[in-house]
Amino acid sequence: MSNDGYWFQAPPVSTRIPLPPAEPVVELVDITIDGRTVQAPKTSTILDVTRSLGIDTPTLCFLENLTPVNVCRICVVELTGARTLVPACSRKIEAGMVIQTDSPRVRLARKMVLEFLGSSVDLSTAPQAQSYIERYDAKPDRYGPRKESARTHDHAEAVDGTKARTTQVPVKIDNDLYVRDYSKCILCYKCVEACGTDAQNTFAIAVAGRGFQSHISTEADVPLPDSACVYCGNCIGVCPTGALMFKSEFDMRAAGTWDESKQTQTDTICSFCGVGCTLTLHVQDNSIVKVTSPLDVEVTHGHLCIKGRFGYQYVQNRDE
Amino acid sequence: MDLHIHGDTASPQEREAVDGLLGPAPSAWMGGLRNLNEEGRIALVGGQESRTQRHRLIEAFHAVQGRIGWVSEGALNYICQRLSVPPAEAYGVATFYHLFSLSPRPSTVVHVCDDIACRIKGGENLCQDLEKTLGPSGSGSWQRSPCLGLCERAPAALTLQAATTPRGITLAPTSGEEITQGLKQNAWPVDEPFQNLSRSIPPSGSRELRLLKRIGKIDPESIEAYILSGGYARLKQALALGSEGVIREVLDSKLMGRGGAAFPTGRKWEAVAKAPAKPHYLVCNADESEPGTFKDRLLMEGDPFAVLEGMTIAGLATGCEKGFLYLRGEYPLAGKRLALALDLARFAGFLGENILESGLNFDIEIRRGAGAYICGEETALFNSIEGKRGEPRNKPPFPVQEGVFGKPTVINNVETLVNIPLILKEGGKAYAQLGTESSTGPKLFCLSGHVARPGVYETTFGPTLRQMIEIAGGVPEGRKIQAILLGGAAGVFVGPDQLDIPLTFEGTRAANATLGSGVIIIFDDRVDMTDILTRIAEFFRAESCGQCVPCRVGTVRQEELFHRLRSQQPLVSREEELNLLKEIGQVMRDASICGLGQTASSAVESALKNLKGLFAERGQP
Ligand code: SF4
Ligand code: SF4
Ligand code: SF4
Ligand code: FES
Ligand code: FES
């Protein structure tokens, strides 16, 4: 220890308020979309540009707060000079690209993707997908009556073609907080990303199996309470089909009491800790029925923890 | 990340198998025993250290699968601890690969090929017999398999036997008798001497062999024999020429990739050599799984040093210090010979540090696939090397920019690499004189099915399909040709009226066909082509990685449709079905992520176009 009696000195207090670093300058490039030539930053995706132009490009596996996986292929557009269609959600723009977002080829691809999903997956709680089905005049029924399918690991499964195979499996109810109904899963990979590197870093679920047998699973399909799941519910937050659902919503739907037209949504700040996540409380008949979080809030971009997501029971403990 | 391990622990044998690959567990944290003297009171954690090993996940599964015959929950848990991989993710990886079993299975399992080339040589009947004697496929000691790359000796089977030293035994041609007796008495043939490989290279007249010249002639386990036959002279030459010199020769040779995509090899090399990001990687794509292809297997089994020499030249020319040879999991003999060759080459100074005193380093590691056709797709292969599910990546970025481990990567097929020493020997310009203007050099063709002498044929580009079939002895028993499949399951069917197609890249393209990997399967007039087409549809359904909707569901719907066409039970009408087939094909071609989905309808659609009278309606011709 030195002689002056102090071995630690705090740095002088700054008199300047630190500024954020300057935004890097992004080069603008010209591209042509549906005959309109526009300038956009080089780092944009085709989807960014179509959205800025007010073109409604359908997406299913894309979400603003997740890394694009480009697997559903519903957002494909026609790029002049490319052999195949390209996914708008992930393809970065390049100078001089000429793109059509509503050509017959694009419409056919989108219609077929929707028919493929509609004929194999239960889309009854996926309003977005249903509206696309209407928009593209998809006819999921033209592949024959639906078949209940059992997952096999063998390439030689017996097929006769008279029924359309589906991903039907029993609903998994193995905890009090949320329900997993993989018959409704379109394999958009969003829940895996939210559970993994994009938000929670817990890696409780992953895609298992291959091909049509691919499915979201814990290790060896163990029930959630045995898995690494921490019940942040971020997977529910990103699921576009209702395959992952609050138990409260699931039970109300089963009882026939779920009624979105009677619900209000109120934004508030979670009071459990200092992070200060924004909560959107969905209230029906004066009771909270589920909790979401807006994607565009800086603090957590729509992701929550178990307390904010599920810890609302106390609000409803009324003295009666 | 918080590693959550639940349930069983590994048995001593399972641990031993994993430790055999990764070394003993250094700490309790990684699943070892707690050693208080070494670790003190604070547990040694090694997250970073073990995570850098994560790419060895698939090899770790191989270790357990090869030792026990299946991967238990305990073994999976132990592997997860060793490599710091979350169990759900490891489970997702293991279940992607069909050679790994996650449920108990006997230690010996026979994989019997029921794919197209074997099917018409009794493979399907064989499977049906086994279904009667041994029970359904996958229920125990046997299962159906896609093409095993032994089509010239159809019908084929591969016995995989888990043991301290696991064995893979090729049975080709095989019979129900051989398989049931083998299982009953646990008696299997030993590896055949290398001379037997020559039976897969039927004499083809006076043609000069350049790529196949050593196969069956010299001992593939002797580096002396290889050197005596001119081996490794080209590596010395390459070192003298330097990177730019070698790339110039390859550009001059106009060598096109032989794996199916036919991209100019020199351009690839140039791009990687110049890529600023470091390190660079070289990958040899030896995941030969296109039904009807077996040439790479022959090259690796018969001339492993040539493959290594080609890789070393490629690696040094493109600034790589590390190469991966991604070997199809169903090729145990090739794996054995390559592993031995690697050791011998390293010992002799042809690999490793300071190669031949040049100051340059390059080494090669073998990685095995595990039963996934999709891993032949280059970006899926990269993911597999990284220890992930073999799901293709979206392109761009291309491999030369971001390949394996996100670094610039040269990826070449085995046959392409074996051409490299030859190019240096002949000189790029002289090599370009062989063959035709746009298809230069020698090419290997795999002939199988109804042809008198099935096997691998080498010829310089030029002969027509008709000439190739004649060289192979024509169709036996005086039968007529009904159809020919060019390029494998992802290729194109042509009819007997198209025999004059020149077998060159440009010639096949002009005829709306493809050379693919050099597959030529001949079907005579007795074959039920509707059965073949249905099997191809089934193949794609089973091999789709399942990532993107067009291919995951499209291949299922296409398969169902073929079953309906076959049984003449259309949903609405035959016309409607054909129209539906077109739309399914269109979306798979247009919107799938990778080549598998994009070509999944090509062969079947071409058959409907080029072959007459398929699926004719009842009562009609
Ligand atoms: S469960 Fe939901 S979020 Fe997860 S892959 Fe399926 S549809 Fe997507
Ligand atoms: S949701 Fe969780 S992290 Fe966010 S404020 Fe509430 S308690 Fe804190
Ligand atoms: S095309 Fe098929 S194999 Fe390729 S990425 Fe898509 S699902 Fe996977
Ligand atoms: S939204 Fe682009 S591929 Fe799914
Ligand atoms: S080994 Fe049977 S088809 Fe190739």
Automatic annotation (TrEMBL), chain A:
Pfam families: Fer2_4, Fer4_7, Molybdop_Fe4S4. It comes from the Bacteria. Residues 176-205, 218-249 form the 4Fe-4S ferredoxin-type domain. This is (2Fe-2S)-binding protein. Residues 263-319 form the 4Fe-4S Mo/W bis-MGD-type domain. PROSITE patterns: 2FE2S_FER_2, 4FE4S_FER_1, 4FE4S_FER_2, 4FE4S_MOW_BIS_MGD, MOLYBDOPTERIN_PROK_1. The lineage of its organism: Bacteria, Pseudomonadati, Planctomycetota, Planctomycetia, Gemmatales. Keywords: 4Fe-4S, Iron, Iron-sulfur, Metal-binding, Repeat. It comes from Telmatocola sphagniphila.
UniProtKB/TrEMBL annotation, chain B:
One of its GO terms (molecular function) is 4 iron, 4 sulfur cluster binding. Keywords: 4Fe-4S, Iron, Iron-sulfur, Metal-binding. Pfam families: 2Fe-2S_thioredx, Complex1_51K, NADH_4Fe-4S, SLBB. Residues 530-575 form the NADH-ubiquinone oxidoreductase 51kDa subunit iron-sulphur binding domain. InterPro entries: NADH-UbQ_OxRdtase_51kDa_CS, Nuo51_FMN-bd, Nuo51_FMN-bd_sf, NuoE_N, Nuop51_4Fe4S-bd, Nuop51_4Fe4S-bd_sf, Soluble_ligand-bd, Thioredoxin-like_sf. SMART domains: NADH_4Fe-4S. Gene3D superfamilies: 3.10.20.600, 6.10.250.1450, Glutaredoxin (3.40.30.10), NADH-quinone oxidoreductase subunit E (1.10.10.1590), NADH-ubiquinone oxidoreductase 51kDa subunit (3.40.50.11540), NADH-ubiquinone oxidoreductase 51kDa subunit, iron-sulphur binding domain (1.20.1440.230). The keyword Magnesium does not apply. It comes from the Bacteria. The keyword Cell cycle does not apply. Belongs to the complex I 51 kDa subunit family. This is NAD(P)H-dependent oxidoreductase subunit E. It comes from Telmatocola sphagniphila.
